[in-house]
Write a structure and sequence with these properties.
single chain, 2 strands, mainly alpha, 3 helices
Length: 97
């Protein structure tokens, strides 16, 4: 990894950790389905960042199990966070009415 990639990865990890911490604090203050889905979105997004970094460093390799040619774990980390965000937004919009 080059120096710029190391700095970018460190920045992503630090900011992702701060976002996860803030989301946990929000969830502790305000327990609703929308906030819990938002917390799940932030945590799975952070897990995706960590997983990508571990794959880039060669510590973790993709499983041989693939769906449509995409490794299953990579597919899960790419598709689950947006689903949680969508659920959070739908719940929060429906609650306002």
């Amino acid at each position: 990894m080059s120096d710029s990639q190391i700095i970018l990865s460190a920045l992503q990890l630090c900011l992702g950790g701060l976002c996860a911490f803030a989301a946990i604090l929000l969830c502790a203050k305000k327990r609703s389905a929308g906030v819990i889905c938002l917390l799940a979105f932030v945590l799975t997004s952070y897990a995706r960042t960590v997983y990508q970094l571990l794959c880039d460093l060669g510590i973790v390799t993709d499983l041989k199990v693939a769906l449509f040619g995409v490794p299953l774990l990579t597919l899960a980390f790419e598709s689950v966070p947006p689903i949680f965000l969508l659920l959070a937004l739908i719940i929060m919009i429906a609650k306002k009415k």
